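Researcher: Here's a chain I'd like modeled. Treat it as a single chain, no partners, no ligands.
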Amino acid sequence: MAPSPAARVLRVRVYADVDHRARGLHWERAFEAWLQRASEAVRGPLGVTFELESARAWERRGSDGPLEPVLEALESLDAGEDVDLVMGLVAAPVSFSGAQHELGFARVLGRHCVLRGLGGELPVEARQRLEVAVLLHEWAHTLGAPHVRDGRGWMSPKYDAGQKGFDARTLALLGAGLRHLPGARVELEAQKAWARELRGAVEAMTGPAWEGPERDFLLEWTERVRASSVVLGPEGTPRSLTPLERQRLAEVIALEKAGRPEVAAEALEPLAVRHPQDERVQLLACYLAVRLTPGLDATRERCERAISRFPGEPSLRMNVALLHLHAGRFDEARDSLVAARRNLEARAEVEPAQWADLAGLFLRAHCVTWAEETAARAPGLAAAAAVLEQAARLRRQVALPARAEAGTSPALEPAREGALVRAVSDVEALLHAGSSGPARERIAALAQAFPASASVALLQCELHLFQGRLDSARTACERVLALREDAVQAHLLLGVLATNTRAHARARKHLERVIALEPSRTEAWHLLAREYRGTRQLRTLQARYREQFARDLP
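Model: Modeled as a single isolated chain. Structure tokens:
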């Protein structure tokens, strides 16, 4: 004797449209009785009891015509994720041919079904028997049950008054669904387990009674689930956001804009887990993770998974570049930004702000030429103008060659600029720390890698000055200015040299040039004040300083 099935209560929400409500004053009470009769029919073989969660008015009209568009409207109205089944009631048909699809409609493996009310011309007992058959027929579809073309049970495509119950194989299939749902609609492993059991039940349905497109669809769906890395919807494609989930996503966006990214990230996480194929969700999840936890490997893995799913989305590449920059992986950041630029160039329309954002990241990666070229694509934007200004300052500071004119070969390949800029910074840090030996070795290696580079000559000038080799320092800095006249650091160093050797005219010339190029370099103002001490120019310099900094020159 087979064991009794475990008791299971299925919560049902029902919507009645205007036409259905107009034909019955107490439609809610009538539907609850309808559910009770259906429960009595399946409580024994399946252990199922249907429970009415709520009965709601549905402001739609028009009961004639096919029911599939009505089902689509119901799905859009209520995703039903907090109940087991959502039903829609529409008015009775003008005439009834006996076809089940005229009385009800459900999507196989879905969560919704639409039922027509039945006219009062039928005897009460016959009407109630038909209502139960139609409701259970459509409910069984939502668990995957196909039609059975032997005409004896509830899954027959055509109604007959003599039909009663589900056949044994359909009961096995329904039992599989009851064991795995509702989790199998939203959790990958639960769905895979359901698909395995469902496939076994469908493969047992052999013979002409079960042959047809429905059986083929179920076998194909279970195979897709087996191979999928995401939860699939009834159509065999990744689940799309429900109306409630779309509302939650909007709330997450509002939280982020309100300056509450931690709360936004927490609220988004369930959506991110359930919808790995939804581009908006995954873009936002990557962005928030980068903003909140840039140092975690999990953040980089999350964003890289999103890139594998949406390789044409530039913002993902830019976020990954930010992670690389945070970790000091400048070459990887550069490669991600180049890929982001390709993504943008492939688009017919791009917001100028996107070019400005990319330009700013290129500059953070010390890719100066690419930063300038990208910023030029966003003319008029303050962010782009700031990038161009900062790039020009960086060129002057480290004596990078000027940007090549169109059609000419650059003096330094843009892809190598970042390495040179960072090397200049590293060597200067060594010199400031008093590590002249390691600095000298780095400069020698740079001279091999970047021959005839003004940046390397600048480092040689600083090294010679640190070692007290003043003539060698002066020669190296003058070589820098011969290659790059606006190299502000070279002017400053030559000004220091001239001050220390009492070459006042030369000192004033170089220090004035520093102030003209970079007014914020206060050390140049202070040295120049010493040079102008006891002269009329000092008062003029003090007035200029006050105008520049709104305070007196110390």
